């Protein structure tokens, strides 16, 4: 296993780039800008390696990255309804950056910060350690917060993401990675024919503005039932379903059962590429890229709807009336910890 690091410089734009490579040739590329993962190179059933996450055309494009491609979302992943949250009886106004609500931490969230970074090389993995300090009042959040994210790649083709954080004042902390996965490689095909399985009996109802209501809905008998494998695109355009219509497809929170070795399986029958996801997070937000701004990608294509799917493992987003806020509360003396493991493999 090996780790290669270099610095990208273009005028005032400067950050570090790390490549984690295991003995099987699997490669993960990470930026110190936003903790962005730009590449996950895995083989198909013919042994051909391609990138299974959407990568922007040029490294400097990640300074904008309004779709959060590959980035760490924080302080709070997902939305906060109306940008308001009450913590210990005090109402805080968090920066509104999405239709009158907060999305993924505000205007300049963790996804656009330069993180302190250092490579890690151990006997059983190579990795990158990322550290960031967020000041009291930043984007409206209370408390001085220190966070750490560690990406690890081992020879079992497992990419582990470990998140931790502390605060000096009661606050919110809820981190995730926002990769856009397309297992055909280099965006060769869309993801409607990809096969998806989610170990979840319930989703959270989505209300106006894609804000959670706090009400949990059973998936049985609905387009949201992925307890058995099915094509992601099988029911995605059923706009007679109110929830699908609100999101223009899948952009919802599945509460994970957490009682199996794998929480999520995603695979592409054509290429044979597949991945299993296991997390200690309470839920996953699956976003099937229902919208796209047409950014140029490194594969030479423009980003287009249904080109990839995100699996944002996290605590639930927060509703207009503080729904689920308690699941993101972090107090002084406590330590925030979360972990997600992605295992990449090939099926015939």
What would you note in describing this structure?
There is one protein chain. With 348 residues, the chain is mainly beta. Helix content is 2%, strand content 41%. The protein is built from one helix and 27 strands. Strand 18 and strand 19 (212-218) form a beta hairpin. It starts with a strand and ends with a strand.
Spatial strand order of the main sheet: 11-12-13-14-27-23-22-17-20
Total count of strands: 27
Query: Main sheet?
Result: 9 strands, antiparallel
CATH class: Mainly Beta
CATH architecture annotation name? Distorted Sandwich
Count of DSSP-assigned helices: 1
Q: What's the overall geometry?
A: globular
CATH topology: Beta-galactosidase, Chain A, domain 5
Helix content class: under 10%
**N- to C-terminal separation?**
26 Å
Structural class determined from secondary elements? mainly beta
From N to C, what is the helix and strand string? EEEEEEEEEEEEEEEEEEEEHEEEEEEE
In total, the number of domains comes to 1
Instruction: State the low-pLDDT regions, or none.
Output: none
Question: Approximately how much beta-strand content do the residues carry?
Answer: 35-45%
Output mean pLDDT: 97
Radius of gyration, in Å, reads: 19 Å
Descriptive terms for the model:
348 residues; five-stranded antiparallel β-sheet; 27 strands; Beta-galactosidase, Chain A, domain 5; mainly beta; nine-stranded antiparallel β-sheet
Brief rundown of the structure:
It is built from one helix and 27 strands.
SSE topology sketch:
Layout: E1 2-10, E2 13-21, E3 27-31, E4 37-43, E5 49-51, E6 72-73, E7 79-80, E8 84-87, E9 90-93, E10 102-103, E11 116-121, E12 126-134, E13 145-153, E14 158-167, E15 171-172, E16 176-177, E17 195-198, E18 202-206, E19 212-218, E20 230-231, H1 242-247, E21 251-255, E22 264-267, E23 273-279, E24 283-287, E25 310-314, E26 329-330, E27 336-346
Antiparallel strand pairs: 1-2, 2-3, 3-4, 4-5, 6-16, 7-10, 8-9, 11-12, 12-13, 13-14, 14-27, 15-26, 17-20, 17-22, 18-19, 18-21, 21-24, 22-23, 23-27, 24-25
């Amino acid at each position: 296993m090996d780790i290669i690091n270099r610095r990208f410089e273009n005028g005032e734009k400067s950050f570090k780039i790390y490549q984690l490579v295991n003995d099987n040739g699997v490669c993960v590329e990470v930026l110190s800008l936003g903790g962005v993962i730009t590449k996950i190179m895995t083989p198909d059933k013919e042994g051909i390696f391609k990138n299974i996450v959407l990568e922007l055309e040029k490294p400097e494009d990640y300074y904008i990255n309004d779709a959060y491609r590959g980035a760490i979302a924080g302080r709070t992943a997902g939305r906060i309804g109306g940008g308001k949250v009450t913590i210990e009886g005090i109402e805080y106004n968090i920066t509104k950056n999405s239709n009158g609500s907060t999305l993924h931490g505000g205007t300049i969230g963790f996804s656009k910060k330069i993180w302190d970074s250092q490579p890690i090389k151990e006997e059983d993995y190579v990795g990158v350690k990322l550290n960031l300090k967020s000041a009291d009042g930043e984007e409206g959040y209370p408390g001085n917060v220190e966070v750490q994210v560690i990406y690890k790649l081992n020879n079992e083709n497992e990419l582990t993401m470990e998140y931790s954080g502390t605060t000096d004042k009661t606050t919110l902390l809820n981190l995730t990675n926002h990769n856009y996965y397309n297992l055909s490689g280099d965006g060769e095909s869309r993801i409607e024919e990809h096969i998806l399985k989610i170990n979840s009996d319930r989703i959270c109802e989505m209300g106006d503005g894609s804000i959670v209501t706090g009400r949990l809905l059973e998936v049985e008998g609905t387009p949201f039932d992925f307890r058995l494998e099915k094509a992601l695109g099988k029911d995605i355009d059923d706009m007679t379903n109110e929830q699908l219509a609100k999101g223009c497809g899948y952009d919802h929170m599945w509460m994970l059962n957490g009682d199996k070795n794998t929480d999520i399986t995603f695979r592409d029958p054509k290429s044979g590429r597949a991945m299993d996801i296991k997390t200690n997070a309470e839920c996953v937000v699956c976003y099937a890229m229902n919208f796209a701004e047409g950014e140029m990608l490194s594969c030479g294509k423009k980003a287009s709807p249904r080109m990839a799917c995100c699996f944002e493992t996290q605590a639930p987003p927060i509703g207009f009336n503080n729904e689920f806020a308690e699941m993101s509360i972090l107090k002084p003396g406590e330590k925030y910890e979360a972990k997600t493991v992605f295992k990449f493999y090939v099926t015939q």
